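The authors assume throughout that readers already know how a fold can be written as C-alpha cells. A single example would do more here than another paragraph of explanation. An entry of this sort, consisting of the sequence and the corresponding C-alpha cells, reads as follows:
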Amino acid sequence: MMPRTTLSLTAAAHAQLRAHLFPGDGKEAAAVLVCTQVPGPRIRLLVRDVIPVPHDSCTRRTDCSLTWPGSYIEQAIDAAEAENLGIVLLHSHPNGFPAFSTTDDESDREVMPCIFAAIDARHGSAVMLPTGLIFGRIYDRDGGHTSIDLVSVAGDDLHFWWRDDLATGICRPMAFTPDMTCELSRLTAVVIGISGTGSPTAEQLCRLGFGRVIGIDFDHVEHKNLNRILNTTFADAENGSTKVEVFAERANRYRSTPYFEGLAVNMMSRDAVMALAQGDVVFSCVDTHRARMIADRAGATFLLPLIDVGVGIPTRETAHGLAIAEVTGRIDYVYPGGSSLRDRGVYTPESLQAEALAEEDPVAHADRVKAGYIEGLPDQAPAVIALNMRAASAGVLEFIARAYPYRHEPNASYARTKFMLAEAFEEFTHEREFAPKPTRLLASGAAEPLLGLPILGQEDQ
C-alpha cells in the first residue's frame, strides 16, 4: 500500500539524533523535532529543526524510562508557533523494544493536548531504535492518532523504514530482487521531462514497478523527435498530442490499474512544484537551466533525493569539416543538505538570466533551439537514442545503488558520474569535492513563496 503519512529527515539530522539518543550508556534519551509540511493530499512532515534534550537535564534516565523537563517542548513551541509548524517528540528505546510502551501512551495523552492548545498543526511522537530505524504516529486534536507509514532519510544512501517492518522484522531488500520490486511498488517517482532522456528513464521506472510515476512535460510530440521518444507514433505527432499524454496512455496498459500520471505543465509553475512534492525521488531529464533550478530547489525544500541527467556531443573543426570531439553523459546525485546542482556549476545565476533573455528574444531563442544535441550542427532529429538510453540507465542505476547499496565503495564517491564514449572513459566525483552552501530552503516545505520564488506565489493558482 502506498504511504499515506511520511516523516522525512536529512542524513545529517538523522546522524545527529542517533548520536544524541544513543550516547553509549544504555539509557533512554530524547529530542524534539520541529517539522514543516508538504502541501498536497499526502501527509508528509519534514524535520526542519532538532532540539536535543540534554542528558543531564533529565530527572530520570533508565534503560526503559525517561523523565525530562517541559521547557524543551516550550522551546519547540516558540520556534514553531509563528509559522504554525508541527512538533514531534522523539525518544530512544535502547533495549530495542519495537513499539510504543504503555508509559509512552500515557505521556502522549498528557502532553499532546498542551501542544495542540498552543499550535493547531500536525503533531506526533516517535521512537528511534539502536539500528537507527524510526517509527512514529501523528495525532489529531481529539487524541486519536495515525501511524506513520514511512520514515525516509536521504543522504549518500537512501533509507526507507516502513511501519510494518516492525511486525515482520524484514531487512532491507537486496538490489535487483523481487523484494526490491515490492518496496518500489510503495514509492512515487517524479520524472521531469518525458523526452530524449526522460522517456527511457520513465520507462525503466515503470517496468521496475514504482507504485506511482509522475511525469511533468508541457511539450507536444513532433515528427522530429519520434526517433528518440519511446512509445510515440506518427499519429501522435500528427495529432499534436502532449508527450505525457502519449506516455500515460501506453504505460498505463502495463498494469491492471493506472499508475502513471502525466502533467502537461511548465516546470516554472506552481502545479508542477506541487506535483513534484508528492514524490519520494526526482529524476531531472531536462535541457533548460531554469527547469534544473526548480528541481534543485525543490529537492532541498521537500527533502527529496534528485538525480539529474544530461548528455552532450561537443564537436571540433578539422580540415575536412566538423567532427565529433566527444560523446558525453553526466549523472549528478544530489541529496538535501549536500551540494546542490548550483554548487556544482550545473547552472549559474548568469546562465539562468541568459536563458530567460533568450526566450524573450525570438531570434536568440531560435538559435538556441537549433543548437540541439550536437554543437554547431542544427539537426532537429539527431540519432541519439542510444546515448540517451545509456545516460538514462545510469541515472536509474544511481537510484538503485543508493536505496539498495551494491557497490564495493561508499556511495559518496559517486556524487557525479561522467562518461566519455570517444575516450572509452568514465570518471567519478566524490561529494567532498563539491562545496555545499547553506540554504534557507532546506525542509521549508509549504512556506510561501514556494521554493523561495515569488513567481510561484499563491496568486498563480
User: Anything to note?
Assistant: The chain has a mean pLDDT of 94.
